[in-house]
Amino acid sequence: MPDQSSPTRPGHGEFEGVAAHYDHLMRLVPYRGWVDYIESILQRWKVSPSRVLDLACGTGRVGSEMRRRGYDAVGADLSEPMVHECRKQDPPLPGIVSDARSLAFADGSFDLIVCLYDSLNYILELEGLASAIAEAYRVLRPGGLFIFDLNTTRALSTDMFSQTDLSGRDPLRYDWHAHWDCKTKICRVEMWFGYRDETGEREFVETHYQRAYTFQEVTGSLKNVGFRRYKTYDAYRFSPLTPWSDRAFYVAQRNDS
């Protein structure tokens, strides 16, 4: 396997080599179940959105499922290779390359913004997270919801991202090693991939970084930009967060009154 001792810098090379193989890698992820949960949140909050932004959409699986259910959904992601995969979904998701901290949309463009699968953990500075939250507020219409999830400190600090599948039974093999820094609250994951098809085998490496944010940091940023109504849930349920929660869901509503 290639040398992983010299990881790439944050923001360089993430979701580039893996983009063409991402949907295969995540083939067991229950995207429809995620959208079911989003719709249960909408029912609980009594919101009926039409125009939806799938923020940090990746290959567009969530946004595509929302389009299949009748929403006018579009995607935005920082990774151009991932956005290119959006057109391959069924139905295709219209997507653009855009940074969550500086969105290429006009004020009040959306009724709903969803940002799932710990995408905002990839922002490594609190100021950057605050900018992304401010941008979500800006492009939401009054009454609109911003729904996002984050990996908790427990998830990032317990080595759950060290994963290996080198069995050879699958065309895509991988070997991941996670490194947690308790001072910076950043988890670095060094990833090796091998992909085999009729043309031969290719290898590539990526280094991913995620930062853990506290409840106080996130809710403080929500309040600072103007979100007055917000709620936090243990992922895929409506229970409060606990010290054992691996993923936190945040729901914030723009209310200008």
Features:
single chain; 257 residues; alpha/beta; seven-stranded mixed β-sheet; four-stranded antiparallel β-sheet; 7 helices; 25% helix
Structure description:
With 257 residues, this protein is of the alpha/beta class. The chain has helices at residues 22-25, 31-45, 61-68, 80-85, 126-139, 153-157, 215-225, and strands at residues 51-55, 72-77, 95-97, 110-115, 140-151, 164-165, 172-181, 186-197, 200-211, 229-234, 247-253. It has a 7-stranded mixed sheet. A 4-stranded antiparallel sheet has the order 6-7-8-9. The model has no long low-confidence stretch (mean pLDDT 92).
In short:
The chain is of the alpha/beta class.
Radius of gyration: 18 Å
Counted by DSSP, the helix tally is: 7
Structural class: alpha/beta
H/E topology pattern: HHEHEHEEHEHEEEEHEE
Q: What is the helix content?
A: 10-25%
Major sheet attributes: 7 strands, mixed
